[in-house]
């Protein structure tokens, strides 16, 4: 439960129709297995105590009494179980029969949630036996206990306030306005569904879509436990398609036609953070709800959930290619509009032979094609200086020629040397002045060339560099439109690779592949034996780590300790703990100290859910203090 992780489970026990004793034993066996795994939410199918397919046997008092007795037995035998248990059971209340979810916690029955929407079409005829629980009713009496009864119950953990749970039953999800909508609006982060949904051709797909969309719309976890083998097959078959969703993402799914238990590690802190960020999400309104407190031990959740080391990059090839094409279009359309607005039929870019300027040029080529303008109107300027290697120089030239753009070479060594003499900079002192003077000289040339030709200077800096402040202020930091400003470095590589794979030009493909194989470097220090001497990732850390940190810090607002925990899982076997901690500390230090550069960024298109534009996603003071984050980092 620490850091908001709740292990949840959905189980389909091996029941026998109308045999409550056998069913209770199977439910108990499943509960014990889930308790061993430290599950804090355990969900069983609809009417699993008796079986959903009892039909007119639901009118038998003997069956109802047996179900009640076995529910009390479950309570007695789960006194040491730490968490919430949801069990489907028929309950007679105020002269009517209800299809309910009994909720147990530490040996007590703490609530009864009745089903609201009773299907009475096709193969279903629940209204023959049950009444809707829509109306407000008095509490349920069971022996000496008074148990809250109603659809308006929210179960809230005393130890972790974000750990809030509410229930609905099967058909409740399939109607236009499910109870889970009200539950979420009242503050429930975890929604459970006790179901008995039979199998017909194609229904599994629709069932998945329902649960997925509900979890996404409500920014919630959705735990779906359904009936399986053991129910009567007189007319129907039940497949046990258990699912656990979190905000539209599938955490776990059972195999159809196989009874069993699935587990999912739900992050309620993440759900709470998402709801806070989405200002259109309503504030929790519990006026018509009863909040029932329960207890759960605050302990470490053994995480089985997988965390993608590259959260910005889709793992599947087909989805990744679709995303790459979409992003290139967003970038190109942004630039297209800007060129039209300022009435510029030309553009200028500094071409280094590195990844970022390559992507910028590919976007420019697409934008000019969309405008119907000749690519020769794109001026690519290569500006070799002290750190330029022959490899990057040749790649820049070949890239420009392959795309049919205009290439101009301006060697800036002499200009920078004159500048060094003017300011008294020693040529042998390879400090920040030595490096930044080159970057600012290049930017000045690009701006002046743009003025000469009525063109727009297109910026090349990417999101990862901007997050770290790895840009020369008023050097490569500045442009007239920054097409890469919300593209993280890990994604830049895939965009260039996608272009290489789809360009149908062997020469262009080869140069793009060689650029992809070139170490990332600003090339501001003299080469060693003709090779790049200044490798960015040796200086600021691996970009795949920084992009991971950026996503979870900026997009989800996670604490440093939580990010460190997730990074250790995501990069297990790739980086050791000390390396992950070292660069995480670097990330926070640079992110806070370099905000002044982001406060005056040029315009550029947003392509994903994380961006640092001072006019959009990141309204952050340039002099914010990093102290409280560093104090937590010191404990790692």
Fold and architecture overview:
This protein is an alpha/beta fold and 636 residues long. The protein has 2 domains: 2-294, 4-Layer Sandwich (Nitrilase/N-carbamoyl-D-aminoacid amidohydrolase), CATH 3.60.110; 317-538, Rossmann fold (3-Layer(aba) Sandwich). It contains 19 helices and 20 strands. The chain has helices spanning 20-36, 61-77, 179-185, 203-217, 268-277, 317-341, 355-371, 390-402, 413-423, 432-453, 463-468, 489-502, 506-516, 536-540, 543-555, 560-570, 577-593, 595-598, 627-634, and strands at 5-11, 41-43, 84-93, 96-105, 108-114, 140-142, 145-147, 153-157, 164-169, 190-195, 221-226, 243-246, 249-253, 261-267, 290-294, 346-350, 378-382, 406-409, 455-459, 481-482. The strands form 4 sheets. The chain has a 7-stranded mixed beta sheet with strand order 13-12-11-10-9-8-15, covered by helices on one side. α1 (20-36) runs parallel beside α2, α8 packs antiparallel against α13 and α16 (560-570) crosses α17. The chain is elongated. The two termini are 19 Å apart. The relative contact order is 0.09. The model has no long low-confidence stretch (mean pLDDT 96).
